[in-house]
Amino acid sequence: MTLQLNGFNATLILAAVVSGQAFAQSVQKRPEFEVASIRPYITDAAKVGPGVVDAQMPNLSVNESRIVNIVNLNMQNLVMLAYGVGGAQITNAPWRGDPDWTNTRFSIVAKVPADGNKQDVPLMLQTLLADRFHLAVHREQKTTAVYALEIGKGPLKLQEVKADDDSSSPSGCVRSYGSRDGWFNANCKGMTSARAAQAIQSLGPGYFDKPVVDLTGLTGVYDFSVEWAMKALVQEGGDAPSMFAAVEKLGLKFVSTNHAMELIVVDHCDKQPTEN
Question: How do the domains of the chain map onto residue ranges?
């Protein structure tokens, strides 16, 4: 009886330990910024200056001081950045078709903890949006119409570079005006093919009425440049390059197809953040 009782007690103790470990894991906090400030961004053209283009495309690069600077983004942009998706991949969003939401933009300055790493920064932004805007989302898998990025004809004109885990290494796209009115250039560095697909969608959002999915099978990290024109200019005819044509010059292509992909469904979001 004693042996059975001791064995029973040991089983209970072991179960309690395992249960405690499981509970500790279940309540483990998500990665978060050490400190963050969210402020409204001035969009008055008279104050910002006419003809201003946001040269630095939205990214989560961290500088040497472990600071992330995010400028002039509305809520859709912030969710895209936090979850690594295109705008068409976000559904049930309260800002859809609402100019007031679209024109409400923010600047964020946040500090990454000393033990933080580059891979956790999007999760930190997710936590910040949940804390300050009470953003709540869930994910759904759905087969839907997409633009699939695939390997195209001709040589691949992406410059493969060494992957760098240093959180302060530059990564992302810098956009500038092209040689003609309505033309743009972008230089992109340190991009996986999945990031490239989303970056291209962000550079020329007018071209993409469907989500984008990376089906290239590429596993490297790349630098590349693209030149394209506004969709309205392309529709007028002439030699203005579309974003699709610009991508084909890289040896890639976008193909319209149906594909299973993850959608981000917005359950709730406040228009304004809580106080800093």
Answer: 35-268
